[in-house]
Design goal:
With 613 residues, the protein is α+β, with helices and mostly antiparallel strands. The protein contains 15 helices and 13 strands. The protein folds into four domains: 211 residues, Four Helix Bundle (Hemerythrin (Met), subunit A) (Up-down Bundle), CATH 1.20.120.1730; 106 residues, PAS domain (Beta-Lactamase, 2-Layer Sandwich), CATH 3.30.450.20; 75 residues, Signal transduction histidine kinase, dimerisation/phosphotransfer (DHp) domain (Helix Hairpins, Orthogonal Bundle), CATH 1.10.287.130; 158 residues, Heat Shock Protein 90.
């Protein structure tokens, strides 16, 4: 970042970019992901297992249970047909019996198919589970069904013989015994199937409980991992915020340093250990007249410290500044120090040198400097003002002391001596004149204070300035006549403006008083007033000694005496003239030539101030 002078900021603090997150803590994030995947996969896995078992119960176990129960009913129906035939010898019972056999064969076929599926399910569960085997597993369900079919065939064969040969007591007993054996086998088959269905239902409950426990464990693990991830994220965020805060502070500090260096009126110059310039701020570039590109790399002593204020060359080897910079010491200049401008002229400066340290290493020095020209001028002006005040105090004391002494002396004469009426009147007039003189001096002091405080008041009204000049001049005719001074008003037509009558007479009186005081005997003082566009000019001209050019710029200041200390003036009259002109919205100026005289002029707006000031 540079400007037209080539100035560059001193600070080069680069903002720190937050580092990417480390691998630490990512395991917790991965664990949470795995837990979430497990929370999705586990219900699906167990759901499939439970659905398979429930499907087996619904599609195999429950139909097999119904068929097994139906098989017992069919056997009872067959037994009833056989007994009905034996009692009645009715052939229709044989036909009904045949239909029951056909229906039984269909039931046995279906039951055999379900038995195979039940056996496969049980065997598969035993292979994948460590649970104890059911109590019936000496034979399979299918084998039980096959055995029941075989027994049923034998019993039916015997029944057919009964239909064809007729009953005997042994045949009847064998019929009933076979029927009871078949019903017992059917009941055993019912129990086996019911036990397997119950076992399947228990498996469903077991799977659901296992799923619930696993889901609870996974949820707790996921919660714990989430807390860990949250803690890690919080810590990482805190670190990120801390890094960002540090970066912002560094940037802010850099900007503050840059703004400070840019805004300060002091020059700041950086130099290395060899005394070469490495940097310069904007104020320094302005004070020295160099740009950074022009002065960078140049020897500081040869560029701005090569000579004293008189132009006498100073040896580089004896430079206290370069010695202090090389040794890392602080140093301040004296009041006589000067720096040299690019254009080849010196200017008074006050500088200080501080070492520039990077860690423990000395890398150069920083020279800060200030142009003391205005400061020295202000100090000289202040000393001059102090002298003026001292002179004024002396003059005011003298001016007050004289009329006060006259007043006291006249009063003592009146008190101590017996005087005739004429002499008493003369002493009283002396007291009156002395009092008026003191009153005028005190009034001038008060007016000067009001002007300085900004509370000087004017009350404008339409006035003919020529008449005001006549009135003011009439007050000084006797004084001018006593010194053979020609006091006159340059006549012209009426000059009307909005002014404060009393303040204008006061200002003109001050001008006339000064003019008569400095004009030699036999000289002339002229008052005049003319229009000048939208303004009017009120002037007093004398042919006195004139005002020196070096005094003219401050002659309207308070306590200024035109360069003369023996004039018997407190230096307030012209300050009041300027205050009166300013209060009317105008100006006061002087045009003077040494040895020929001066013209003091107030330029006032015709319309004057609209309101009181």
């Amino acid at each position: 970042m540079t400007d037209k002078t080539g100035w560059q900021p001193f600070s080069r603090i680069e903002p720190q970019v937050p580092r990417p997150p480390s691998a630490r803590g990512l395991w917790a994030l991965g664990f949470v992901a795995l837990a979430l995947i497990a929370l999705i996969a586990v219900p699906s896995y167990f759901g499939q297992r439970v659905a398979a078992v429930q499907g087996m119960i619904i599609n195999v176990g429950e139909p097999a249970t119904r068929l097994s129960a139906k098989l017992g009913l069919l056997k009872a129906r067959q037994m009833a047909r056989v007994e009905g035939f034996l009692l009645s010898r009715d052939g229709s019972f044989r036909e009904y019996y045949g239909a029951a056999i056909v229906e039984e064969d269909a039931v046995l076929d279906s039951l055999a198919a379900f038995a195979r599926e039940l056996d496969q399910d049980v065997l598969g569960e035993l292979q994948s589970d460590s649970s104890p085997a059911p109590t019936y597993l000496g034979t399979t369900v299918f084998e039980r069904v096959a055995a029941l079919r075989s027994e049923s065939f034998d019993w039916r064969f015997n029944n057919i013989q009964l239909f064809e040969q007729g009953p005997t007591e042994d045949a009847r007993a064998e019929l009933r015994q076979g029927y009871e054996d078949l019903q017992r086998a059917t009941r055993d088959l019912d129990l086996i199937i019911a036990e397997q269905v119950s076992a399947s239902r228990s498996r469903v409950v077991t799977e659901q409980r296992l799923q619930a426990r696993i889901m609870l464990v996974l949820a707790l693990v996921a919660l714990l991992a989430t807390l860990i991830v949250g803690r890690v994220a919080y810590r990482y965020r805190a670190l990120t915020v801390e890094r960002e805060t540090r970066r912002r502070v560094a940037v802010q500090q850099r900007r503050e340093v840059d703004a400070l260096l840019e805004a300060t009126d002091d020059g700041v110059l950086g130099m290395d250990l060899d005394g070469r310039c490495v940097s310069l701020n904007r104020a320094g570039a302005r004070l020295l007249g160099y740009t950074v590109s022009e002065i960078r790399g140049r020897d500081v002593h040869a560029t701005i410290l090569h000579s004293d204020r008189e132009g006498r060359a100073e040896d580089r080897s004896s430079s206290s500044l370069l010695s202090a910079a090389a040794e890392g010491k602080a140093l301040e200049s004296g009041d006589e120090a000067v720096l040299w401008h690019r254009r080849g002229f010196p200017f008074p400066a006050r500088w200080s040198l501080l070492p520039m340290i990077d860690g423990a290493d000395l890398i150069g020095a920083v020279l800060t400097f200030t142009d003391m020209t205005e400061t020295f001028e202000r100090e000289a002006e202040l000393r001059r003002a102090v002298r003026q005040r001292e002179d004024v105090v002396s003059i005011v004391s003298h001016d007050l002391q004289n009329p006060l002494s006259v007043t006291i002396a006249a009063a003592e004469i009146l008190l101590d001596l017996s005087l005739n009426e004429e002499e008493r009147r003369r002493q009283a007039e002396m007291i009156h004149r002395s009092g008026k003189r003191m009153q005028s001096l005190i009034g001038d002091l008060l007016d000067a204070s009001r002007i300085e405080a900004g509370i000087f008041v004017v009350r404008p009204s339409k006035e003919d300035l020529m008449m005001l000049l006549d009135e003011a001049v009439s007050m000084f005719e006797m004084r001018a006549s006593s010194r053979s001074i020609n006091l006159s008003v340059e006549k012209s037509g009426p000059v009307v403006a909005r002014v404060d009558r009393d303040r204008i007479i006061q200002a003109v009186s001050n001008l006339l008083d000064n003019a008569i005081r400095v004009t030699p005997e036999g000289g002339s003082v002229t008052a005049s007033s003319t229009y000048d566009g939208s303004s009017v000019r009120v002037s007093v001209t004398d042919n006195g000694p004139g005002v020196a050019p070096d005094v003219g710029g401050r002659i309207f200041d308070r306590f200024s005496q035109g360069g003369k200390r023996d004039g018997g003036s407190a230096g307030l009259g012209l300050a009041i003239v300027k205050g009166v002109a300013s209060a009317h919205g105008g100006t006061a100026e002087v045009d003077s030539t040494l040895g020929k005289g001066s013209t003091f002029t107030m330029t006032l707006p015709v319309d004057g101030p609209v309101t009181e000031r």
